[in-house]
Amino acid sequence: MAKAVGIDLGTTNSVVAVMEGGKPTVVINSEGSRLTPSVVGFTPAGERLVGQLAKRQAVLNPENTIYSVKRFIGRRYSEVQSELKNVPYKVVPGPNDAVRFMIMGREYSPEEISSMILRRLADDAAKYLGEKVTDAVITVPAYFNDAQRTATKDAGRIAGLNVLRIINEPTAAALAYGLDKKKNETVLVFDLGGGTFDVSILDVGDGVFEVRSTSGDTHLGGDDFDKKIVDWMAEEFQRNNGIDLRKDRQALQRLTEAAEKAKVELSGALEARISLPFITADANGPKHLEMTLTRAKFDQLTADLVERCVGPVKQALADATITERDIDEVILVGGATRIPAVQALVRKLTGGKDPNQSVNPDEMVAIGAAIQAGVLAGEVKGVVLLDVTPLSLGIETLGGVTTKLIDRNTTIPARKSEVFSTADDNQTAVDVHVLQGERELARDNRTLGNFRLEGIQPAPRGTPQIEVAFDIDANGILTVTARDQQTGKEQKVTISGSTQLSKEEVDRMVKDAQAHVEEDKRRREEVEVRNHADSAAYQVERQIREMGDRVPANEKARAEQLIHEVREALNNQSPDFARLRQLASDLQQIGYALASSASQPQPAGGPSPGARPGPQPGAADEEVIDAEFKQTR
Amino acid sequence: MATETESSEVERLRQELGREHDLYLRALADFDNFRRRTERDRAAAAQREKRAYLLSMLDLLDGFDRAVEHLDEAPESIAEGIRVLHRQLLGMLEAQGVRPFESVGQPFNPEVHEGIGSEQSENFETGTVTHEARRGYRWGEELLRPARVRVAQ
Fold it and tell me: Do A384 and B27 touch (CB under 8 A)?
């Protein structure tokens, strides 16, 4: 089956995304990158290069390397006078005032050049998917007029693609963030890319998008921020060393690279270190550049660029005849929106709203296009919609802690089981307390149900094997079964609606757990120390009983003393946990010593219970864990 | 004998079963594909991470390359120490499969070269690399970093 792809055909870079297993994924191109430069080069040898390779030879072959074709597509020659002054390749008028590029004596239309980029993207996607790509959704800026849209569509057709639809970039971004499901909202899309800045205001309602206004700056982007850093570094260096690094092409290239790296670092850190050893040399020998750029300095250097974003946002609001208070959602698109000062500005301009942003804001347009392509190609229909459990599910175990069996956000239907045991000797029944929530202690979580499994054969604690299974079906109905593996006795409870919590309730419970994470961890550790100490005391006591007078008198006295101390500490509501841990560890050592001395004179001594709390690992099932039910009274 | 409503009910159920079965198979296939994709993605992610790390090591190596060019200005004992460090770093990278490749004298090839300028040259034919501003490296079979070069006009 042929696949449909989504293509963000950008001015500087392009991105292609596909639907895979119902989820949009960005394609990694043959050079291992997610971004493909929107550049086409024609070499003297007659070869045609697209993307990274074309970019690598651009400096050597400027007349025959076309970039920023998006600035020309669908426009009249007479309209692009200011643009063609900025490019080194030859732009000539064609029939009916059309734009043509003159390359080695042949004329190419912007549609043809764009088609080469589109073809390359589709080929990369096909290679990635291992399937032929025939259909595509291509994005264009919201301000593109009919001629520009038609030309983009034609470019797709020349590339051999069936263009399912041309959609607006801000609409694609809104789709990528799932805003199509919202009802009657006003969305502001702030798109600051490598070289262009677009602001759009959309009305979204039941899957319908309407562009209310657009504004922007066709020559403002992340590259301008890099240049500010380069200038700062070069000026500082010149002040100290009297050499202008910008005159040295090789040094300039290193500065530009270091500037971009520093900019990226400053999105996460408060300062970036720039080291360019041996950047140049004069009569006195080599010179090195080493500086630290703080975020504050970076913000100061780029304040005028950030300020240039204000006008278009205000303009877009005014054109849509709304104020910042009317905006329901804000979306950040484009790599440069990672810059903290840009984010702060957007927040300020939109009344302090938290924007929708992703780790890869430069990929959201392509992702939205892929989602649209998936819907149009009917691919999204066949997918089984699966739900997840909003909160973790588990049972209460010894000491009142929650032992989770199914973690939150597990896709359902799901089944999970674990083997537990008893906490006391000759315990004949266990209570299963089914819990929902993220907290460590049972009493802080929500009780979903309770039941009792009876008729367990009397046995020392830790011996019975009780399998507890959680099974949630596709409708969210949870069945918890407890089964005594020896007798086959079984008891169960069915709970419906374990997934039907309101979003607020789920959020509250998750937040609550996060707020108490430290405290819960400590409390859980305390319970574990208690359990461990109790179990160690029990095991050693039992060993002494079983070995009788073969236990050396001095060891016996010491063991009994320790057991006594442990029991005393356990009776205390708030014992000294450090001491209790030490006592338990000492007891455990004695237990090991006794076990080894017992095994020597008595080789057929039967299965020694050892000094471990809970069932022996590997005794019956790999899933046996160190947890026990609390005692049934 | 089945009445008309019963047989249409059977037909409806049969169709529904077919649909459900199709969905079931799709889910199975999806999962299988997902498993394969996850495996592939994990391997690719590990490769990418290592690649980024090796690339940052190349920055360091570039520094050494430049230092070595200036060693005649340093006392011999220091110079020798730096040469040893340089070789050690090269050796470490080589153990990871990273190897430099020669560019000067080769025809310019955008697969492995990034052009930063052109110049008149008496020694080289037009389109040949005359100068290497930054060495190029391969990592096993793949290109780790293109060489940055000047080319004869």
Answer: yes
Sign of CA dihedral A393, A395, A399, A400: positive
CA dist A564 → A538, A539, A584 (Å): 11, 13, 11
DSSP state of A98: B
Q: Determine which helix (DSSP H) or strand (DSSP E) holds A433, and give its type and residue range.
A: strand A430-436
Helix (H, G, I), strand (E, B) or coil at A58: coil
Q: What single DSSP character describes residue A77?
A: G
Element at A251 (helix H, strand E): helix A249-265
What tokens does A587 get? 């007891």
3-state per-residue secondary structure call for A525-555: HHHHHHHHHHHHHHHHHHHHHHHHHHCCHHH
Q: What is the signed CA dihedral for B23, B24, B26, B27, rounded to 10 degrees?
A: 120
Question: Per residue, what are the HEC states of A437-505?
Answer: CCCCEHHHCEEEEEEEECCCCCCCCCCCCEEEEEEECCCCCEEEEEEECCCCCEEEEEECCCCCCCHHH
Mutate to test the interface with A, among B36, B37, B50, B116 (most CBs of A within 10 A): B116
DSSP B128: B
Contact residues, chain A, for B110 at CB < 8 Å: 41, 43, 49, 53-54, 56-57
State the Cα–Cα distance between residues A201 and A326, nearest whole angstrom: 11
* Complex confidence, ipTM: 0.80
Query: Angle, to 10 degrees, between the axis of helix A577-599 and the axis of helix A553-571?
Result: 150
> Average pLDDT of A113-126?
96
- Chain A residues whose CB is inside 8 A of the B125 CB are none
Q: Which residues contact A119 (CB under 8 A, 6 or more apart)?
A: A50, A159, A160, A161
Which of A48, A254, A260, A278 should we substitute to test contact with B (largest number of B Cβ atoms within 10 Å)?
A278
Q: Which amino acid does the sequence have at B137?
A: Y
pTM (global) more than 0.90: no
Beta-carbon contacts of A54 under 8 Å, excluding residues fewer than 6 positions away, are: A37, A39, A40, A41, A65, B110
- To the nearest 10 degrees (0 to 180), the angle between helices B76-95 and B4-69 is 160
Q: B17 — contact with chain A (CB < 8 Å)?
A: no
Which range is least confidently modeled, A54-68, A94-108, A533-547?
A533-547
From its phi and psi, is residue A365 left (phi > 0), alpha (psi between -120 and 50) or beta?
A: alpha
Distance of alpha carbon A288 from alpha carbon A564, whole angstroms: 71
Is residue A294 a contact partner of residue A269, using CB atoms and an 8 Å limit? no
Would the CB atoms of A384 and B37 count as touching at under 8 Å? no
* Selection from B66, B72, B132 nearest residue A289 by Cα: B66
The answer to whether the Cβ–Cβ distance between A60 and B70 falls below 8 Å is no
Q: Taking CA A323 as the corner, what is the angle to CA A320 and CA A327, rounded to the nearest 5 degrees? A: 85
Phi, psi for A621 (deg, rounded to 5)? -150, 145
Q: pLDDT tens for residues A430-471?
A: 999 999 888 888 888 888 888 999 989 998 888 899 999 999
Provide the 3-class DSSP secondary structure of residue A48. strand
Chain B interface includes A268 (CB < 8 A): no
Least confident of A82-96, A108-122, A397-411: A397-411
The encoded tokens of residue A328 equal 């329901």
pLDDT tens digits for range A373-408: 988 887 555 444 456 777 889 999 988 899 999 988
As a 3-state breakdown, chain B gives helix, strand, coil percent values, each rounded to 5, of 60, 20, 20
CB neighbours of A362 closer than 8 A, spacing ≥ 6?
Answer: A13, A15, A35, A193, A333, A334, A335
Displacement of CA B140 from its chain's centroid (Å): 10
Burial of A211 (0-12, 13-18, 19+ CB in 10 A): middle
> Which three-class secondary structure state does DSSP give residue A389?
coil
Residue B88 pLDDT exceeds 80: yes
